[in-house]
UniProtKB/TrEMBL annotation:
Pfam families: Glycos_transf_2. Residues 126-292, 393-579 form the Glycosyltransferase 2-like domain. Keywords: Coiled coil, Transferase. The keyword Transferase applies. InterPro entries: Glyco_trans_2-like, Nucleotide-diphossugar_trans. This is GT2 family glycosyltransferase. The keyword Coiled coil applies. GO terms for molecular function: glycosyltransferase activity.
Length: 677
């Protein structure tokens, strides 16, 4: 029996080998055919390009491409008005840029003050820079930006994987080492090591780390520039806030001039959902050495997105991630750099997805999906698994307005793909006969219940109180989750409930909110920003921008943490709703939703805005605007109460809205100030 089995195995493997051999031969033949066709195609292309007519038509083709680009931009802006707003925004941005380049560098007096500051805790920073064939001009600028730091307790660890043709890299580093020795009168703060071979970004940086002796580790690219005060600012937050992971705002620049900025990225404070969707932290990451204990710095399997992987891992371990809201890192954009476009390193996309997936699995998530968004290949939509089939109670407060309510409920019933829900309409002193007729029709649907807030059983005051009406609806709800929904909304995306539920189900999330549009497809809600607007209470970010707009740094294209979401479409577990006492009925009309979200945050929960749950919101149709008479008076009173209740929170500022942004506009416009650092 054993011999027969052996013969069978030999024959099986022999046949399998022959089949694979035939496949390989066939594949080789196909490759040869394609190469031949490619040579023929290249010949034809070169013949066309050498044609005088083709050369003469170059100006026309350039003009045509310009018009096509403008058409694409106009589409993203929505209309001419949107384009005009974008142009104005860019003008303000260019004006602000003048304040964030070399004009922000410390003058002699400030440099002396920073240099002489003695902190209670003297921190030594080890700055790691992997070198590889670095152009002379880039290398000089990078080295100078470290040497010229106002805070002087640092060491620069350089691991050089350059080839023989770029041997000048080592010579230049040695020159700086000698200057350092002369400056310090002893040892150099620059440590250089020539590697036997180039090990890539991850490998070279890991070699830098073996040379480091500092308490805090900083990651710095060989072609970028640091602001002279960045280490001073980082030492300051370590001393004042016990920060163990720190990052700052950054800009990309071109033509070897940091004043010629392409984009400026003013970031939010630490936000885990933002980070999962987009490596917004990026530069200049500095962290306490202890965070690396038991793990490695860069993992080579994530080359191309090794920094995103590292940031996800180390911020998970950190006790206090601190964002320094100052532009202090200058990221050079040139051919071959990621700053110049992800096309330069396409493998970074897969690496980033892999890093995020590894992070999510580490947090216990399974069966999720990571996909690129329309904003950018490495800005992701993360689809979490819906656990079970929990019942959602959709609570809609209503008074009259039959057409609005009918449009809302019809869109829910006809478009929603999630089926385990109930609709609770809380009737509040309606007067028109048609609404009562519509209620009778609704009662025929087993998914809909009508609760009369004004009957003897409930007896809510006839004076409208949005909070009280919704609290009543929640009290009567059977669902595990509560979805507060305005009667003047209309569902757009069929899986809107799933998109909200996947976040509300998470143990760390309080409320989840949707992206809402006006009838003209401009944005009404994309997350709430504290202190934004004239009343300095709260306002909507990206307000009035077109539906196709990507948002500031792509923020209209991915789910993110926000301070609050609007009660016009808000999903939360009933357990949490009751835990925070529901909507505060002292906020009868306005700010009750923001107050509710801040109560959730006070208990340590995140509030998440997702752009993948979309609805129309025909705002103020139901109750009108709060801009005159008694309504304006009431709004002013509630605003004053809100500012008093959340005074400390408002003074601290919205953690998800950079303090460099103006609070007078919702388009992420920068403040125009002379002194920014």
């Amino acid at each position: 029996m054993q011999e027969e089995k052996t013969d069978y195995n030999e024959n099986y493997y022999k046949e399998a080998y022959e089949k694979e051999h035939i496949k390989c031969a066939d594949l080789a033949g196909r490759i040869a055919e394609l190469e031949e066709k490619n040579e023929e195609l290249n010949f034809k292309i070169n013949r066309i390009k050498s044609n005088p007519v083709w050369k003469a038509s170059a100006p026309f083709r350039k003009a045509m491409h310009f018009l096509l680009r403008q058409r694409s931009r106009l589409k993203n802006c929505g209309n001419l008005r949107g384009l005009a707003a974008k142009i104005k925004y860019k003008q303000r941005e260019r004006e602000a840029m003048e304040r964030y380049g070399t004009d922000s560098f410390p003058n002699e007096a400030r440099r002396k003050k920073e240099n002489e500051t003695v902190f209670p805790r003297i921190i030594k920073f080890s700055i790691l820079v992997p070198l590889y064939n670095t152009p002379k001009e880039f290398l000089t600028a990078m080295l100078d930006s470290v040497v010229n730091q106002t805070y002087e307790n640092w060491e620069l660890c350089l691991a050089d994987g350059s080839d023989e043709e770029h041997s000048y890299v080592g010579k230049m580093c040695e020159e700086y080492i000698e200057r350092e020795k002369a400056h310090t009168g002893g040892e150099s703060r620059i440590i250089y090591k020539k590697l036997e071979k180039n090990e890539g970004i991850s490998g070279n940086t890991n070699r830098c780390y073996t040379m480091a002796t500092g308490e805090y580790i900083g990651l710095f690219d060989h072609d970028d520039i640091l602001h002279p005060s960045v280490l001073y600012e980082y030492a300051k937050v370590i001393n004042e806030q016990d920060a163990d992971y720190i990052y700052c705002d950054e800009t990309t620049f071109k033509n070897n001039d940091i004043n010629k900025m392409l984009t400026m990225h003013f970031k939010p404070d630490y936000a885990v959902d933002n980070l999962r969707a987009n490596n917004y932290i990026c530069h200049f990451s500095v962290f306490q050495r202890q965070l690396l204990e038991g793990t490695e710095l860069f993992r080579t399997k994530y080359d191309g997105s090794q920094d995103h992987d590292m940031i996800l891992r180390l911020t998970d371990r950190a006790k206090n991630v601190v964002h320094v809201p100052k532009l202090m890192y200058y990221w050079r954009s040139h051919a071959g750099s990621v700053a110049s476009g992800i096309q330069a390193k396409t493998y970074a996309i897969d690496a980033a997805k892999g890093a995020v997936a590894d992070h999510l699995r580490g947090h216990g998530y399974e069966h999720f999906k990571i996909s690129s968004t329309r904003a950018f290949e490495t800005i992701f939509k993360i689809s979490y698994q819906i656990i079970g089939n929990p019942k959602i109670s959709i609570v809609i407060a209503n008074k009259d307005h039959k057409e609005d309510l009918s449009r809302c409920i019809t869109s829910i019933l006809e478009k929603s793909t999630y089926d385990n829900y109930e609709i609770i309409v809380v009737e509040n002193n309606s007067e028109t006969p048609e609404i009562w007729e519509y209620y009778e029709k609704l009662r025929e649907n087993e998914k809909v219940r009508i609760i009369n807030a004004g009957d003897s059983q409930h007896s809510i005051n006839r004076k409208f109180n949005y909070s009280a009406v919704n609290n009543l609806g929640v009290k009567e709800a059977d669902g595990e989750y509560i979805l507060l929904l305005n009667n003047d909304t209309q569902v757009i995306t069929v899986n809107w409930m799933e998109e909200l539920l996947m976040y509300a189900q998470r143990e760390d999330v309080g409320a989840a909110g949707a992206k809402l549009y006006y009838e003209n497809k401009t944005i009404q809600h994309a997350g709430v920003v504290l202190a934004l607007g004239a009343h300095r209470t709260a306002g909507h970010s990206h307000y009035g921008q077109h539906r196709e707009n990507l948002g500031y740094m792509g923020r209209l294209c991915y789910a993110q943490d926000v301070s609050a979401v609007t009660g016009a479409c808000l999903l939360v577990s009933k357990k949490l709703y009751e835990k925070v006492g529901g909507l505060d009925e002292s906020f009868a009309i306005s700010l009750n939703d923001v107050d509710f979200c801040l109560k959730l945050r006070e208990l340590g929960y995140l509030n998440v805005f997702t752009p993948f749950a979309e609805l129309y919101h025909f705002e103020s149709i139901s109750r009108g605007l709060d801009d005159e008479g008694e309504k304006a008076k009431r709004y002013n009173e509630e605003s004053a109460r809100f500012r008093e209740k959340w005074k400390a929170v408002l003074e601290k500022g919205d953690p998800y809205y950079n303090p460099n942004f103006s609070l007078d506009r919702s388009d992420f416009s920068l403040k125009i100030e002379k002194n920014v650092i």
